[in-house]
Amino acid sequence: MRQKGIQIIPRPSHIEAQAGHFTLTPHTVIQLAPGTESIGATLAKHLRPATGFPLPFAGTSSVTKAPESVIELRLSDAPPQTGDEGYFLQVRSNHILLRAAKPAGLFYGCQTLRQLFPPAIEASARVAHAAWTAPAVTIEDTPQFVWRGVLLDPARQFISKQGLYKAIDWMAYHKLNRLHLHLTDVDGWRLEIKKYPRLTQVGAWARLDGGLKIGGYYTQKDIRDIVAYANERFVMLIPEIEMPSHAGAALVAYPELNCFGTRTSIAQFPVDPLCGSEFCPGNDHVLEFIDGVLSEVAALFPGPIIHIGGDEAEMRYWGECPKCQARQKKVGNLHDWFMDQVRDKLAAKGKRAMGWSGVTKGAVFTCWDNDGSGGWGAAKGGWDVVMATGNHHYLNYNIERTTLKTAYDFDPAPARAALSPEARRHILGFEACLWGEMIPENHLESQAFPRIVALAERGWGVERPDFEDFTERLKIHVERLAQMGILTGPAYGYPIQTALPGRIRNAMPSLIYSASQNQNDEDWRWTLTGIDRGQGYDAILPAQAFDGDLETFHMSWGPRKDVDTFTVVLNKPDTFDRVKAITGMANGDHILREGVLEVSTGYGRWKEVARFKKGVAETKLDRSKIVSVRIRSTINQPPNALLAIREIILEKNGQSTLKTLSPVDRLHLPAAASK
Question: pTM score > 0.85 for this model?
Answer without folding.
Answer: no
